[in-house]
TrEMBL record:
Species per Swiss-Prot/TrEMBL record: Cyberlindnera jadinii (strain ATCC 18201 / CBS 1600 / BCRC 20928 / JCM 3617 / NBRC 0987 / NRRL Y-1542) (Torula yeast)
Coarse class of the protein's main subcellular location: membrane
Record's bilayer topology term: Multi-pass membrane protein
Protein name per the record: DUF300-domain-containing protein
PANTHER family the UniProt entry points to: ORGANIC SOLUTE TRANSPORTER-RELATED (PTHR23423)
């Protein structure tokens, strides 16, 4: 008999299979209702955590040797999910720039005790504070592969003790500091933006992500302590298990296999596909299944975000400025920092402008004497370039012309083709009712016009189903107007 009885291993395998099937069905329904790519790609990436955990836990029960290969993959993806959840919350709030504008004028938020005695309050309306929080979350994603590589090197070389220093202890210390900082910054962001996140019912999503990570982390810590004090001794009988396996390690994976069913059900309800159905988003096109799948696994948006966060060049007061004359809270340090950067108010504080500086002129932004707030420098040669209509496929989308999500989506699309829309002319009559009638009744006409939409080129072949036509609010409006004209004619 191995570390655990075969019956328990079989039950764990069945639980892992059930959890994976529930998760895969939820993912499939997301992909066939793929109407919000910016948001749903993040949702699916979070949902993929369930089958990955299920497979890795069951394999670890069957073979300790194989677990040495798959465990690092699971842990790296676990770190990636923390960052993905932060990106999802950011998107729900309209993007990073909208967060800075939304929180302008609010008082800074104090840290949870006891850190409020040591650290100054957090002003998330300062783009540099937002960047610091994002870097704190993302550093775990950057460090986790390095930590796994260091563990592997120590395991292979056997250099556990160098100059009297326990290498395993040092690496584990770095790991615990990194994951603690990442989770703390995520909780800090949650505290700063909770009132704005409440309309999106985020608690279910938050618990689904946090609980599985805490279950994996703290169960492992507890069982490792029990193993260290001798309560759970090593057991390497070799009957289907490899030498070096421990009872505590097996119990941890067995518990996770069973717990994953509950997590899968939680993901089904918290990351539900129903809010992306045609009935919930009338008039909104969708992407084909294969295209949606490519978008989920595309790396362009990740590379773009990793690079921009690491460099931090796109985070400054001018790019995160609003056209409204918002004044930072008196206790905010960013208030004086904005003045030092060149922000000035006029007309008794009702209007504002930025003094010209060298960086504005060098970046190809506004003219030197412009009093218009600098938004985002134009991106030539992209789907969202200045010559292309950037009206979103969903009329009520929070995405704007200059949103970072636009650039991330362009980066994702470039992973599959080198072609992009550069010279298309925007439709001059996109709000004309006759154009909408063309969408509804003429498929060829719609195929030509949709090229001017951000998801209308070959990278994003939008499908506009008959069911969506029937539920379209624009079509319902046209019908009401037609009925009103008929009634006036009869009168």
């Amino acid at each position: 008999m191995g570390v655990l009885p075969h019956l328990i291993v079989g039950v764990c395998g069945l639980c892992a299979l059930v959890a994976s099937l529930i998760s895969f069905e939820g993912i499939r329904r997301q992909l066939v209702n793929y109407r919000k790519p910016y948001q749903q790609r993040l949702v699916v990436r979070i949902q993929l955590m369930i089958p990955l955990f299920a497979v890795s836990c069951y394999i670890s029960l069957r073979s300790f040797r194989l677990s040495l290969i798959i465990e690092p993959v699971r842990e790296i993806y676990e770190a990636f999910v923390i960052y993905t959840f932060f990106s999802l919350l950011t998107h729900l709030l309209g993007g990073e720039r909208n967060i800075v504008i939304l929180t302008s004028g609010r008082p800074p938020v104090s840290h949870p005790p006891p850190f409020n005695k040591l650290l100054p309050p957090v002003d998330i309306s300062d783009p540099f504070s937002l960047l610091a929080i994002k870097r704190g979350i993302l550093q775990y994603v950057w460090l986790k592969p390095i930590i796994c590589l260091m563990f592997a090197l120590v395991e292979i070389t056997g250099l556990n003790d160098i100059a009297g220093i326990n290498v395993y202890f040092v690496i584990n210390l770095i790991y615990n500091i990194s994951v603690s900082v990442s989770l703390y910054d995520l909780a800090l962001f949650w505290k700063c933006m909770y009132s704005d996140l409440r309309p999106f019912n985020p608690w279910g999503k938050f618990l689904c992500v946090k609980l599985i990570i805490f279950a994996s982390y703290w169960q492992g810590i507890l069982l490792a302590v029990l193993n260290w004090v001798g309560v759970l001794p090593n057991d390497s009988t070799g009957d289907g298990y490899d030498d070096g396996n421990t009872l505590g390690f097996a119990i941890q994976n067995a518990l996770l296999c069973v717990e994953l069913i509950g997590f899968a059900i939680g993901h089904w309800h918290s990351f539900s596909w129903t809010e992306y159905r045609a009935e919930a988003l009338p008039g909104c096109g969708r992407l084909p299944f294969i295209t949606a799948l490519k978008d989920v696994f595309g790396l362009g948006d990740l590379l773009y975000d990793f690079k921009s966060t690491f460099q931090g060049d796109e985070y400054d007061y001018r790019r995160f400025d609003s056209v409204e004359a918002l004044i930072a809270h008196p206790t905010s340090k960013s208030r004086m920092a904005r003045f030092n950067e060149g922000l000035r108010f006029t007309d008794s504080g009702r209007q504002k402008y930025w003094l010209p500086n060298a960086s504005t002129a060098a970046s190809g932004g506004r003219a030197a004497n412009s009093k218009t707030p600098l938004l985002v420098k134009p991106r030539a040669g992209s789907i969202a370039s200045a010559n292309v209509s950037t009206r979103a496929i969903y009329a009520n989308s929070m995405l704007t012309v200059g949103s970072k999500e636009d650039a991330q989506s362009v980066a994702n699309a470039s992973m599959y083709t080198s072609h992009s829309i550069e010279d298309n002319e925007a439709d001059e009559h996109q709000d004309d009712p006759s154009l909408l009638e063309g969408y509804v009744y003429d498929d060829n006409f719609f195929a030509r016009v949709k090229r001017d939409r951000p998801f209308g080129d070959k990278n994003y072949p939008v499908i506009y189903d008959t069911q969506e036509h029937q539920n379209s609010p624009q079509l319902q409006r046209l019908r009401r107007e037609a009925m009103a004209r008929q009634q006036r004619g009869l009168a």
